[in-house]
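QA checklist item 7 of 12: single-chain prediction sanity check.
[x] sequence parsed
[x] length recorded as 392
[x] structure emitted
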Amino acid sequence: MFRRLFTVKPAAWWLLLTAAVVAVAPRLAWQLKLVDSHDALYIVQPVAALIGALLARYLLHGQKSRLRHTTDKAFVVGSVLSVWFVLYFMSGLFLTFVHNAVASSWQAVGLNIISFGASVLALEFMRYSLMVLAGRRNLLWFGVLVSVVCAIQQIGLILPPEAGSFLELLKFGITYILPAGVMSLLLTYLSVAAGFGPQLVYGLGAIAAAVLPPIIPKYDWYMTSMSSVLLAVAVYMVVDRSGGGTDAERLRRRHRRPRLAFDAMFGVFTVALVCFMTGVFTYKPVVIMSNSMLPVFSRGSVVVVQQLRGSMDIQVGDIIQYEAEHKTITHRVVAIDTAEDDSGDRVFTTKGDNNKSRDEPVAQSRVIGIVRSTIPYAGYPTVWLHDISAKH
C-alpha cells in the first residue's frame, strides 16, 4: 500500500493538499472570527476555490483524460436531473411548499448564482485535475481520498452537535454526511468514467436545485437526505449503463434519451400544473392584488394557499384567505373568538400588516385556507391584465 503512495505524481499530492485547505478555509476563517458566516460562504469559499483551480490548471500542463462520448453522457446526466427536479418540485403539491432561506430575494438568487456557481466550477475542475494526475493505477484508493476531501467542503459551515445523544449524531450523519459523501463519490466517479462535462452538469444541477428556487417542497431531514442519495444512485446507474454499445447505438441513445426525458418531464409538469391551478390538490396559487400585507408580500406576488379541509387548526399569527363581499382577502389573524350563536364555530379577526385598522370578524365557514408560502412578482401578468380590463 505504501509503495502505491510513491506512484502518484507529486503534483497530485500538492493539489490534494490545496483541495484540503480550500475545503476547510471557509470554516476556519469563520471559527477564528476573521469573517462572519455569510462572508465565509459567499466570499472566502469561491475565492479559495478559484485559487485552487488556477493551481490545478498550472499543474495539469495541458494533460486531458482520453474519454470519448462525454457529450452523450452529459445529455444523460442532464436528462436524469431534469426529470428528478420536476418530480421533486411537484411533490410539494402533496406535502407543502416552504420558503427557501437562501433564495429570499432576486438579489440573493443572483448572489447564489455567482458564488455557488463559481465555487462548483472551480472545485469540480480541481477534482477532475486530481483524477487525471493520479494515473489509471491509483484511481480507486486515490479517488476515495479525493471524495473525502471534497465531501468536507460540501458540508461547509455546518457543525455537528457538541454533546448530542447517539440519535442526534445519527441524524446529523444521515442529514449531512451521508448525502455529501454519496454525492462526492458520484462526482469523482463521473470525473473518471464520464469526463469533466457530465461531472460539471451534475454538480451545477444539484446545487442549482437547492439554492435557486424561491420555494421548495417541505421535506423533513430524512426525506431530504434520501432524495439526494437516490438521485446520485439513479445518475450512477444510468451513466454506467450508457457506456456500452457501438458508436451508432450511442448516437441513437444520445437523441432518444433526452427526448424521452423531456416528454416525461413535460407531461408530468403539465398535468400537475393544471391540477394545481384548478385546486385539485390541497394547495392552490392565488395572486395578491394589494399591498396590505407589506412587507411579507406585495401586490403581484403569488401565495400558495393550503385549502381548509377537516379540522385544520388556525392560530393567531397565521395568514388566512377568506371570502368577503365580492372579493377575497388575505390577511393575518390577530384574534380568535367563539361564535355567539352557540354553534361552537370560531370567528376570526384579521388585519393587514400594512393596514392601520382591523377587518370585520369573519366566520370559519368563509375561510378558504392558510397561506403557506409566497412567490414574489410571479403574479404581475395577472395584475396587469386586471388593470387593463378595469380601465375598459
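[x] summary fact logged: Residues 245-251 have pLDDT under 50 and may be disordered.
[ ] second reviewer sign-off
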